[in-house]
Write a structure and sequence with these properties.
Layout: E1 5-11, H1 15-26, E2 31-34, E3 46-47, E4 55-56, H2 67-72, E5 82-83, E6 88-91, E7 97-100, H3 104-114, H4 116-139, H5 152-164, H6 171-180, H7 183-187, H8 194-206, E8 239-240, H9 245-256, E9 261-263, E10 268-274, E11 277-283, E12 288-296, H10 300-309, H11 315-323, E13 330-337, H12 348-351, E14 358-361, H13 365-376, E15 380-389, E16 404-413, H14 422-440, E17 448-454, H15 456-463, E18 499-501, H16 515-528
Parallel strand pairs: 1-2, 1-12, 2-9, 6-14, 12-18
Antiparallel strand pairs: 3-4, 5-8, 6-7, 10-11, 11-12, 13-16, 13-17, 14-15, 15-16
Helix pairs in contact: 1-9, 1-16, 3-4, 8-13
Length: 529
């Protein structure tokens, strides 16, 4: 094999690309990762936005990275350190608050303060969701079959899948409901209190997609807390020391130890297709790199519409990729502050912990619905829903002495604003976010030393997230498993021989899980034999 020829060349250096490359390198393959930016990690990255600060500009906490990936790639050995965080704290408009305890009994008692009936129902709800979780956890690692095919190989794959999940039995109907119903309706089976429903369905509207708790097919997000087993040797969730780059750098180090090559400032101009087969890539510099397999960690629309071109695609496939919903309504604001926000509803003695490092704002269903509605009609939510993180409280490497870093993930805003452009919109968004936080933490505006405002178009421009979508596309029943990103091409393969996808555009979608990279590597290694 020549110096400029590889077993695999990966377009993009996000965490799934690095996972895919690391697994392939461990299997003895010569693999090259190409990243257009000066740093690896994609959305799992931390940058020195201001001198002395390490800012996780997009993803902000490790909640879903799968234990299998952590253990297989020995990420702790290669430097990844997880710092446990205090529980989520949610202030209420009337002055009270709720703490979202990871301990089930404590959470039951917390809910009972709002509604005794809902407190009694909480453990039943947990038991129900925990009963569905194993099927979803197993499903993460499946290679989606082509259910529209009648080829013997595909029919056999579908039969084997059916046999493996035969034990779902009567739970099939619950699983169907969780895929198709709104989070609000699904929670209505157990709970009556509005705050409880908002607290549990918050992620359905504020987790990176384009919906609200009453949007159909959002109940799927209720399973999110059950996707990862926190009781393994990999440990639990938390902040990553040094920011989210700690994940990406550890994966890269694991891969490099087995021969993985990584180049930054190496933008790919096009994927080279000859006679229906991917043979390599051409860089913006004009250099060409040949490979037995080309693996795209870019999103599906960028991969096929930009790096290959619509004219080269099968007509039905091109239509499916064009119609894949990728518009998001979430934003990210990062702040350097001279002191931490003082939340008037927080009492450390009553709470049992020193400071609310994770704060969630959006305590009613109407609040969450109005925020989404305002973005749906081309605007910026007057009162956005917010997750305000203060990671520098648990990690002193993120900010200079005496300073702190706030990471704010919120919704909702329109990708295309109706009455203004985003140059004007960013200032309005910032003011509304600060006004909202001021309601619960007066005086925060005066503490801001630096700020970074990232609207959906900014997330798209900087991180190549289509439409600013952190999951590369909605994770709803019509865009998951064997339909992600297109019917007939959900198995990490594409219409072109030796061209594969390993990004969040494929099963099981977005979030820093590492699963798309793992599953793609499994398929590619099988095809390269």
């Amino acid at each position: 094999m020549s110096q400029n020829e590889y077993d695999g060349v990966i377009v993009g250096g996000g965490h799934n690309a690095l996972v895919c490359g690391a697994y392939m390198a461990r299997a003895g393959k010569r693999v090259l990762v190409l990243e257009r930016r000066p740093m690896i990690g994609g959305a799992a990255v931390s940058e020195e936005v201001w001198p002395g600060y390490k800012v996780s500009i997009a993803s902000f906490i490790m909640a879903l990275l799968q234990p299998k990936v952590i253990l297989d790639l020995e990420l702790k050995k290669y430097g990844m350190e997880v710092l446990p965080a205090p529980p989520l704290f949610m202030p209420l408009p009337e002055g009270g608050s709720v703490t979202l305890w990871p301990d089930q009994e404590k959470m039951r008692d917390e809910i009972a303060r709002l509604s005794p009936a809902d407190g009694r129902a909480y453990l039943d709800y947990r038991k129900h969701m925990a009963g569905l979780a194993p099927f979803l956890q197993r499903l993460l690692w499946e290679i989606p079959p082509n259910v529209g095919s009648r080829r013997p190989k595909d029919l056999l794959a579908m039969l084997k899948l059916a046999v493996r999940y035969w034990d779902i039995g009567p739970k099939f109907y619950d699983f169907y409901d969780v895929l198709t119903q709104s989070a609000y309706d699904y929670l209505g089976r157990w709970f009556e209190n509005d705050t409880v429903k908002a607290m549990l369905s918050y992620y359905a509207g504020g987790g990176g997609g384009n919906g609200s708790p009453k949007t159909p097919a959002t109940a799927y997000a209720l399973l999110r807390p059950f996707v990862r087993d926190h009781g393994t040797a990999a440990g639990g969730p938390g902040f990553i020391r040094g920011g989210m780059s700690g994940i990406s750098e550890a994966i890269a180090a694991s891969g490099r130890a087995h021969g993985l090559e990584i180049r930054t400032n190496a933008e790919v101009r096009r994927i080279i297709i000859k006679n229906g087969q991917a043979t390599g890539v051409e860089l913006a510099s004009g250099d060409c790199i040949n490979a037995r397999a080309v693996i795209a960690n870019a999103d599906a629309k960028t991969t096929f519409m930009k790096l290959i071109g619509k004219e080269a695609l099968p007509t039905d496939f091109a239509a499916a990729i064009e119609n894949f919903r990728t518009t998001s309504s979430v934003f990210k604001i990062n702040l350097a502050v001279t002191k931490l926000p003082h939340y008037t509803a927080f009492d450390p003695k009553a709470a049992g912990y020193d400071y609310p490092v994770q704060v969630r704002i959006g305590s009613s269903i109407d609040y969450l619905e109005r925020a989404f509605d305002e973005s749906k009609y081309g605007g910026i939510a007057k009162s956005p829903l917010l997750t305000v993180m203060a990671p520098s409280v648990v990690d002193d490497t993120l900010a200079p002495p005496g300073m702190h870093l706030l990471s704010i993930f919120g919704g909702h805003v329109a990708y295309d604003l109706k009455d203004m452009d985003w140059d004007q919109g960013r200032e309005i968004l910032y003011d509304r976010v600060m006004d909202t936080i001021e309601t619960y933490a007066p005086g925060i505006r005066q503490t801001v030393a630096h700020r970074q405002i990232l609207a959906p178009p900014d997330l798209e421009r900087i991180l190549c997230l289509p439409g600013g979508h952190v999951h590369h596309g909605d994770i709803t029943v019509d865009q998951i498993f064997f339909r992600r990103p297109a019917p007939g091409y959900a198995d990490y393969r594409t219409p072109f021989k030796n061209l594969f996808l390993c990004s969040a555009s494929v099963h099981p979608g977005g979030g820093v899980t590492g699963v798309p990279g793992h599953n793609a590597a499994k398929v590619i290694l099988g095809d390269l034999k």
